[in-house]
Design a protein that fits this description.
The chain has 23 helices and 16 strands. The chain has 684 residues and is an alpha/beta fold. The chain folds into four domains: 37 residues, no CATH class; 207 residues, Rossmann fold (3-Layer(aba) Sandwich), CATH 3.40.50.300; 197 residues, no CATH class; 206 residues, no CATH class.
Length: 684
Amino acid sequence: MRLYMVRRTRSFIQNNYADTDPETGRKFLTFEDGSRSYFPVRQPSTVKFKIDDKDTADQYARLFSPDVVDTINVLSLPRYGLGNYVAPSPHEPPTPNEAKLLHDLSRAGKRLMGFCRTNLFKRLESSGHAFILSLERHVLRNYVFLHAIENSLPLPLGTLDAGSLDTAIYDEDNDDVCVTGELFEDDDTEACTLKSIVAPRSDAEFRQRAAEIYAEYAEHYKKRFKWLRPSLFVKTLAKDLANDATALLLVLNRCGLWKSMQDTKLAALQQLLMHRHANEKVLIFTQFADTVHYLERELKAGGVQRVAGATGASTDPTLLSWRFSPESNHKRERIAASEELRVLIATDVLSEGQNLQDCAVIVNYDLPWAIIRLIQRAGRVDRIGQRSETILCYSFLPADGVERIIKLRSRVRQRLEENAEVVGTDETFFEGDGDDKTVIDLYHEKSGILDGEADTEVDLSSYAWQIWKNAITADPSLQKTVPGLPPVVYSTKQATPGLKLVASAENPPGVLVYLRTAEGNDSLAWIDQQGQSVTESQYAILKAAECPPGTPAQPRQENHHQLVLKGVEQIVAEEKTIGGQLGRPSGARFRTYERLKRYAESVKGTLFDTPDLHKTIDEIYRHPLRQNATDTLNRQLRSGIADQALAELAIALREEDRLCIVHEEEQTFEPRIICSLGLVHKES
C-alpha cells in the first residue's frame, strides 16, 4: 500500500512541512522556484432561513411537522424489504431462477429499508422540492406493484443493491420511474419518456399512471428488470404497499404542490448570490440531483447569470469544472469569457478529484450527516493555487436554531435501531455517529471545525517517515544504527503514564508489533496481556511506542514472544479479511472487491460461481487498478450497478487486460516481523 497511496491531512502538512510568515502568522509552503502557497482560513458561516410553525402557509413548517416525521418513521417500506414477505409454501414452487432471486431478497433482510427511510429524511433536509418528488415517486412505485398484484402480473424488481441508495456514490432518486433496474444492460433502449408533467394526487390518478408505467416497463424495459410472480409473496405485501401509499398521499395532499416563490431557503440563497457575493464565483453543494436541477432552474429564472448544474448523470462534469475554474485547470485559453461560469451547483460527484480553486465561496445547501463530507467539499477549493486568504463555507440551517434538525436525526437513529435496519458495515452509510455537536458548531460558526481530518487519518507511511526524518535530523548516527539492527529485534519500555490512547484503559500493558506482510504492507498491532487486540488505530499504536531517546529499557516480559505471535496472527487474518492494500473504503478498488466478494458468496455452488470470477477477485486484491478501470468502475458504482452486472464488467475488463496493473515478476513473501516493543506498567 505504501507504494500506491500516501494520505497526508491538511493539518499534518501544516505541522510538518509548512513555514510561518513572521509578519502575518500565516502558514505557507515554499516551492522550488521560491514561490509561496499560503494556507487559507476556512471560515464557517451560517445562512439562516425562516421556518414559522405558527404560519399555516409555511411550506417548511408543514414538512417538518411531527405528523410528517411520524408518517415517514412508521412506513413499512415493503418494496425495500421484500425478503420479509416471501411466502413459505407457495402453491406453485419457484423456478430455479426465481429461487435465486428470492434468496437474494431474503439475504437483504431489512437493511435496504433503513437506507430508504434515511434517504427520505435526508431529502427533506435538502429541499422541499426534492422531498415532495420522492414522496410522489415512492407512491407511484407502490401503485405499480399493486397494479401487478391485483392483475396477477409479474412484479418488476429494480436494482436490489444498497449502492443505489448511497448518496455518496449515487445522487439520483432510486424511486424515479426512469431508474429502470440494472443500468449495465446490453440493449438499445432510448432515453426515458416515462415522466409525467402533471403530478398525480388522488388514488385514481396514481392507479391510472401506474398502469401506464407498468405497460411501458413490460414492453420496452423488460430486460432491465428482474421479474417475480406475486404468488410467491404473502398477501400482507399488498396490504403494506397500500397502507404506505395512503399515508404518503395524505402527506402530499396536506402539504400541497411545492411553490418556489414561497421557498424561504431558496430566497436566502438568491440573496447570497445576488447581493452578498454578486461578483464572486460561488460553488454550491447538495447531496441530490433533484435539488441541483431545482436550484439551477429557479436561479436562472430569478436572474442569476452564468450558472450550471453538475450531477452524476452530467455528460462531462470535468468540462463544467473547467468552465467554472479555468485558471486552476490551466484551461484559460480554451474557455471563452462567454462560456465561463460564475455559479456551479453540484452533487458530491465534484467533491473529489476536481480543481475548483478559482472560487473561494462554498455553499452547503444541505448538510451531509458526516462532517468529513463537508471537509471534502471545502477541499475542492482549498488547494494549491488558491489566492484568497479566507474560504467562506456557508451552511444552511433554520433561523430558529438547530434543535429541529437534531431532533429529527435522533428520531431517525432511534427508529433504525428499534427495527434493526442497520447491520454490520452499513453503519458507514448512515453516517449516524450520534454526534450532534457538529451541527451546533456550524450554527454558531465555530472556528476550525472545517479545517480538515484529524491527524489520526494520516496513513501509517507518512507518520513513520516523519518520525524517522525528525529522529535522524536530531541524531544523524541513527541512519547507520537502525538499518543495522537484526530482524525480530525487541525491547520493552514503561508505558507512558497519564496518556490514554484507547477507551478501555490507560495504555494497557502488552506488546506492540511491527510486521511487513506477505503482500509487502507495513502494519502495526497492539496486543494486551490476555492476547486480545487493544486497538487497530495505527496512530494510537505509534503514539504508544513514542518515547525520548534516553528512555531506559525494562526487562522482557515472560510471555513477550507469545503475544508477538498473537499480533502477527491478527494482522495476517485482518489482511485476508479486508485486503490491506485495497486503499480507502470509498475507493473504486475497495468497493469493487467487497461487492464481488459478497456476490461470489451469494452465487456459491451455482452456474455463476465461475473460475473467472474468483480470478478477477484475486487480481483486484493483489494488484492496483489501471486508471481507465478505476474511472469505469467509479462511473458504474455511482450509477447503482447491480452485483451481477459489476461482476460481468470486471471479468470483461480482466479478459481484455484492462483491469489491473500486473507485474509477472512479482513474488509472494512470507510475513516478516521487523520489531516488537513490550509495554509494562510501573510497579506500585
